[in-house]
Amino acid sequence: MGGIRFSMIGEDLWSVSVSVLKKYQGVGLGKKSIRDGMRELCKKIGGRVSVEAKVLESNHVSLHTFKSVGFTVHLAQGGIAVMRRMNDG
User: What is the CATH number of the domain that holds 7?
Assistant: First the structure.
């Protein structure tokens, strides 16, 4: 179906990478994966977490997906939007 991966990139900052197989796209699995993954990450580290996603500005579907689960554009440069979300655990 796909996968999600979180990697620590700073003391209180994590990156997220999400992929959904083409035949499962468009049914909300990306949103669900991000929401569930964020919840589990917060449980695992026991507190506030800031998560960053790098999305091609031309990938409107991914931009919309991340925005729909609370990410905002932190920086846009060179065709890439750096999106962030703070989660209070």
Answer: 3.40.630.30
pLDDT band at 88 (very low <50, low <70, confident <90, very high): low
The SS3 of residue 52 is strand
* Overall domain count for the chain: 1
Contact status, residue 49 vs residue 38, Cβ threshold 8 Å: yes
Distance, first Cα to last Cα, the chain:
27
Beta carbons within 10 angstroms of residue 52's beta carbon: 18
The pTM score is 0.90
Strand pairing report for 80-87 and 49-56: antiparallel
